[in-house]
Amino acid sequence: QVQLVESGGGLVQAGDSLRLSCAASGRSISTAVMGWFRQAPGKEREFVAGSWSGTMTSYAGSVKGRFTISRDNAKNTVTLQMKSLKPEDTAIYYCATAPGRGKKYDYWGQGTQVTVSS
Question: For site-directed labelling of 77, which of 14, 36, 108, 110 has its Cα 20 to 30 A away?
Answer without folding.
Answer: 14
